[in-house]
Amino acid sequence: MRTERSPRTFLAPVATAALTLLALLSPGAASAATAPASAAPASDTVDSQAALVWSDEFNGPSGSAPNPANWNHETGNHGWGNNELQNYTNSRNNSALDGNGNLVITARQEANGSYTSARMTTQGKVQPQYGRIEARIQIPRGQGIWPAFWMLGGSFPGTPWPNSGEIDIMENIGREPHLVHGSLHGPGYSGGNPLTGSYMHPQGWSFADTFHTFAVDWRPGSVTWSVNGNAYQTYTSADTRGNPWVYDQQFFMILNVAVGGNWPGYPDGSTQFPQRMVVDYVRVYSL
């Protein structure tokens, strides 16, 4: 279980727009998985009856922008609360479709030695409440590289973090290529003390070697994480150490690749650039 980490905090949010709401309000009973919280067989956890209600398949010409009806670009180089190094841009050099049905987020080291990347959100555009939130991703690799697929509560920034809630569906830090992490950050359990757990590649290989499917099954009072359909942890409202459960609201999705920061550390001589996070799709299912 990961216990040392700074919060993925959230400066310069986009302005709130008219919301596209997904009605994902027909969850089944809460389920459980092998995890540091509630435990049950993983095969009982991932709902095979999920129905697709929204997706971005990233189909389009090579070099084109991600669909602006779905995605915002957050920009800036102010460290993002974690002493990160990258400047997030809306340039096609850092986020573009590849013409083969993928979105590519590229972290680059520029000629002046600085770093650029992209951070994309669905805030104000696609904000589900409950369901399976899933993406098929080939992550980047290398010391100091920090890819993530995650969500923030739709009440942010009016409700400040961590009270607004955060669901980290997948995070990886380059020095641990065989591990991905899933976490909840909320009031009383955030930053270096979240509700969190990790999934190790079954063969101990790098998750950057190929595509993997990262998901949460999110119901009232519970969140279950899975990788390639293998559930590895569940947290429920009983696991918040007496603190509020803040996940019964709309959340928006985020894709980004950070460079450096308090948790992953910083690039060194072994880190090669550019590094690409290739996203085959992002999908939302009702459960």
TrEMBL record:
SUPFAM superfamilies referenced in this protein's UniProt entry, alphabetically: Concanavalin A-like lectins/glucanases
GO MF annotation list: hydrolase activity
Domain GH16 per the UniProt entry, residue ranges: 35-287
Segment forming the signal sequence: 1-32
Keywords: Hydrolase, Signal
Coiled coil region boundaries: none
Any Pfam family the entry gives: Glyco_hydro_16
Family per record: Belongs to the glycosyl hydrolase 16 family.
Name of the protein this chain belongs to: Glycoside hydrolase family 16 protein
